[in-house]
Design a protein that fits this description.
Blueprint (H helix, E strand, L loop, with lengths): L2 H10 L1 H25 L6 E2 L4 H24 L4 H32 L2 H5 E2 L11 H54 L3 H9 L3 H6 L2 H16 L4
Parallel strand pairs: 1-2
Keywords: Membrane, Transmembrane, Transmembrane helix
């Protein structure tokens, strides 16, 4: 079976790729819209409800391996073909979600917050660039989260629960040491100034090496992963 066959497997999972993210995003939007109608709207009302779709993209990268990898291997699909097809599906989903985020952000800004000064998709700084820059930023961010989840699931598939436990402990240890060193050498102010000097799309470009590393490591892990 070729890559098209892998894409067909994923397209049949309408709940994972279509229904669930639609329900999450629409329900979060409606709840926050109702809240905005119940409060004083003399000022713009911003909500972080849209973050739910970004979190789901990370989760999707994890569950897609758990749900489809054993089935695909059982259908005599090679690991290489499965990986390429799944990675392609993740990129397609990232593009579609990125385009939708840009369109909704544009409509929200055009309608002055849906006529109620309510901002769910459009935020200062994040949406300050051109439509193309925003699209690129969202695609990169969604792809980064998907492949990060994909890498986590591939690692778990390769090394199991004990491996994940050791990975978490190593991550916590490294994070703690990093925080201590940054505080010790008073580097926080320099880091914050650097972030403030960058635009949102410029910051997203720094995620590209992480995406590439996640893709390569995921492929290497799945090559030796058990079913």
């Amino acid at each position: 079976m070729n890559i098209q066959g892998v894409l067909n497997i994923h397209r049949k999972d309408r709940w994972g790729w279509l229904f669930t993210p639609t329900i999450i995003l629409s329900s979060s939007f409606l709840v926050n819209l109702i809240v905005s109608l119940l409060i004083n709207n003399d000022k713009k009302f911003y909500t972080g409800g849209v973050s739910s779709i970004f979190i789901y993209m990370l989760v999707l990268g994890i569950i897609v391996v758990t749900q489809s990898f054993p089935f695909a291997i059982g259908m005599s699909i090679t690991r290489k073909v499965y990986f390429c097809g799944t990675a392609l599906m993740g990129l397609i989903a990232s593009f579609i979600l990125g385009a939708l985020m840009c369109i909704f952000s544009f409509l929200e800004n055009l309608s002055n917050g849906w006529g109620n000064r309510f901002h769910f998709f459009h935020f200062p700084y994040l949406n300050d660039g051109t439509f193309y820059e925003q699209l690129v930023m969202y695609i990169i961010l969604f792809a980064y989260l998907f492949f990060l989840g994909f890498l986590i699931a591939s690692f778990a598939r390769r090394f199991g629960g004990k491996g994940m436990l050791l990975l978490v402990l190593a991550f916590l240890l490294i994070s703690s040491i990093s925080v201590i060193l940054l505080h010790q050498y008073q580097a926080w102010s320099h880091i914050f100034r650097w972030f403030l000097s960058q635009t949102a799309v410029e910051l997203s470009y720094w995620l590209l090496p992480s995406i590439l590393i996640s893709i390569v490591l995921s492929f290497l892990l799945l090559r030796r992963a058990s079913i």
